[in-house]
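Risk register update: the risk of archive-format incompatibility is retired. Evidence:
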Amino acid sequence: MKRLRIWRSLVLALSAIGIAGCSADSLTAPKYQADAAPELVGDLLGNLVTKNVLKRSAPLAKDITVSATIGEKGGTLSIPAAGFQLTVPAGAVKARTKFTVTALQGSLVAYEFGPHGTTFPKSLSARQDLAVTEWQVLELRPLVAGYFAEKSQLNQGSATALVSEVLSGVISPLSKQFTFRIDHFSGYVVAW
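Archived output:
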């Protein structure tokens, strides 16, 4: 029983850190979450923050791209080999739009979305299956999604990415799923 109380306290403390990290001083500033001295890191890297990227259990031998034309009623795209699904809710687009998702080659859990630069009035939902990654149920670090503008910001060797926005998400430990919201298209990694 004591372990359960300790675990609950730890989860509450980590949740509080995540919530505290969600405030923003300006609409255009990158969103930082639980980073040591984010102002210093941002100043040195031009508002970019280095994040450790979650790795896949089996690296992808090549990019995997899927696309679908989705209209006002919404729809989904999925890449089963990468354990990824994107849900476009009704009302996210006003006209039929060709959506593209690419799971990037290598071990990093990284994706590019198109049409690049598109913004949405309703957030899209991205879901990563953690069973195909090196994530562990007892992992104490909370996962986040990180926005990157171009592939050159990914480093396969060090399993890191330079991101300009950090988004919180929700981990479902029993189903081993991580879900996060997307309001604009570019590239995203799952990281901590």
